Amino acid sequence: MSNRYNDRENDNIQNTDNEDTVLLPNDLEGYGAPKSDLPPLRKVNRRASSQAPQQSTQSPQYRGTDAPPQFPKTGQPPRFPQSTPPPQPQQQFDYSDRRYYDYERQAPQEYGSTSSGGGGYAPPPPMAPQSPRPQPTGGKKPSAPHHEEEAPRKKKKKRRHKSLVGRIIRRIIHIILILFLLLFGIYSCTSVCLIRQVNQEPTGHRNHYADSVGKGHVRNVLVIGTDGRTADDRGRSDSMILVSLNRKTNEIIMTSFMRDSYVEIPDNGWNKLNAAYAFGGPELLMDTIEYNFDVRIDDYVSVDFVSFVSLVDAVGGIDLEVSDAEAEEINVILISEVNELVGDDRMSDLLNGGGKLHLNGKQALSYSRIRKVGNSDFERTERQRRVMSLIFSKIKSFRPSMFKNLASDVIPDVSTNMSGANMYLLSLRVPFCARYKIKQIQIPADGTFHGEDVDVGNVLWIDDIEGNRQVIENEVFAESK
Question: Is the peptide bond prior to 202 cis by the omega test (within 30 degrees of 0)?
């Protein structure tokens, strides 16, 4: 029998077993299940297993402890060639570590690198599950969460719509304000230019009487039409019309004081009313009206024959109904004085007869001075008020050509005691007065006087002076219609 080592005593192979590589029975305790606990062997069909999908090999389970066995001296687990290391205990991943792969944001870091400990690449952290987005279907309504997402958008659009409307409204208000300021500036410049052309007279001595009626809602201006032929000729007051602006009743009240009214002139005795102007000018005339009729007057405007003719021509003339008798009397006045007064031929601008006529300045002046047709001075004052009403109506429809004529021909011949500031404030009320109604009255009122001859001629003797005061109180200073 040959030697098992080929006739050699030994195989000369160095024994490398030592305490660190040799497993002792005590060291294997708990490193695997005993033979009796292993499952029975089963026959494996290799063809079927090759066709079936590969399943991941499960790592061995340790009994009693999660850590692998350790060598008693070195404290290291045993290493086997071509063996899979035991799994490490599960730990929480640090997502801020750059070694982990973020599939959605950045490229993998240190992919496939191995450490000295023999580990592979670090798996990516588990991603949080995302809720699936609702998919719209053909005829189905969107789900409730979809409505909740769209609701804020609708509110935002609504706010945008409201802000757009607000901007448009503010823009319109700004445009209206700018237009108003522009028109106000143009109107103010026009008023100031006209006011500078007015002949302003200093206010003379006045005697206001305590019993005079004066109320804040009424503005009184006495319009005096004189019969003076020249600027230096004062003459007598041919017409005296108190123009009152009542802002509570929205009315323009024109009160004609009859020139032949027999009244007491302060410090001058009894005489006709128009004599007061000849004695003391407009100041004494206003004092006489206050003293006899108890109505306060602070301002006046004086117009002579020439300025009256220019005023009617500046507004383009007036249209009114004229009878044949009035037309004949107009021709008489034109021939006798008016044509010669304005420097025209005596036979110019004569009328052929009555009817609906368009009168120029000279013809309107002659119409206002008619006394021999009708009821003498009563119809005369009525004609004067009618002419003034037509002039007011023409002024309401203001035209640029009218401004030129007023500034050059009319305003320089008008005299007043109002200051520039008062005239400007009064001009601001003119646009509002365009919608006012015009009312006409006369003093003395009907049934309160009689005609009588006295030392100064034929006069209107006032029987009921208190009744005339009450008429002025009720008509001029009314607080409601």
Answer: no
